[in-house]
Amino acid sequence: MPRLAAWIEPHPHGLYLPDADAWIDPSRPVDKALVTHGHADHARGGHGAVLATPETLAIMAVRYGPQNGQPIAYGESLRLGGIDVSFVPAGHVLGSAQIVLKKGAERVVVSGDYKRRPDPTCAPFQPVPCDIFITEATFGLPVFRHPDTGAEMDRLLAALHANPDRCVLVGAYALGKAQRVIAELRGRGHHDPIFIHGAMERLCTLYRDFGVELGELIPATGLKPAEMKGAVVLAPPSALNDRWSRRLPDPITAMASGWMRVRQRARQRNVELPLVISDHADWDELTGTLTEIAPAEVWVTHGREEALVHWCMTRQIKAKALALVGYEDEDD
User: What pLDDT score was predicted for residue 2?
Assistant: First the structure.
C-alpha cells in the first residue's frame, strides 16, 4: 500500500514539495518558501520568493528587510505544481497560518505553531479535517497544562497595585507575546500608559497598523525611574537582568511564558512573578486538537515529540517524529 503524502519530503531543514519546487518553513535560504508565521525559527531571510499572509510578510520586512513576497490571505487558494495551497488561521501570533495542501484525494495540514486559547491580537485557530496533520509539540508533555490566562493577568495586576512605589517588569517575546500581554491588560481595564523597551516599538506599531488596539505605549528608554513607578514595563526576556533594567524603580521581575510552569526556569532567570502565559497549545489542547481533527496520520515536530507520538500510537493513530532542525527556544 503506498504511503500517504509521498509527494512531501521531510528534510532536517524543512518540508519540501518537489512538484512545486517549494519549501515550508525552511531553516536556510531557498528559492521558494511557504512560511507559516514570523518567528525566527520559521521565517528566515534570504529566500528568493516568499508566500505568506500579508501580516507575516510585513513582520518579515521589519525583521529582514523587504521581501519578494506573494501575500496569501486566509481562505485564498492557489495552485503550485499540481498542489492546491491555502492558508487558514493558526491562532499563534498575528498572521500565523496553517498551510493546507491538497493533491488528488489527499489533504495535509502543516499547522506551524498554534494555540487554542482566545487571543485578542490574532485570528483564532481553525480546525481543518485532513489525512495528515503535522503538529508542533512545544509543550507536548502531560505536565504542561496552562492555567487560565485571565487569572495570570489578575496576578500581574495584583502585584502592581500592591506595590505602588515599584514597577512590574514583564519579560515577553517581542513578537506576539508582548502585544498579547498588552491587549489582555487593556481588556481587564488597565488603561494606564504601558512602558516598552525600544526593541518592541516597531512590532507594536506594525500590530496597530493591522488594526490591533494597544492603547498608550511609551518608550521606556531615557525616562527617570520615578516616571515609571506603579507602571507595567515590557521588555524582551534578554533585557530582564541587563544594565537596561537597573534604571527601573525597584522592578518586580515577571516573565510571561509557558515555560514558567517549570519552577527551575523561573529561578534560573531570577523571576519573582512567573506568569504562565503561552502562545502554544498545552498537552490537553494538543491531544484535543488531534481528537477533533481525527487525521489518519500525525507527523510531530518542534518539541516533546516522543510523548505525543506515544499518545497517538496508543490510540491506533499512525504517528512519527520529524526531528526538524533549526528550531529555537523563543521563550515561548
Answer: 61
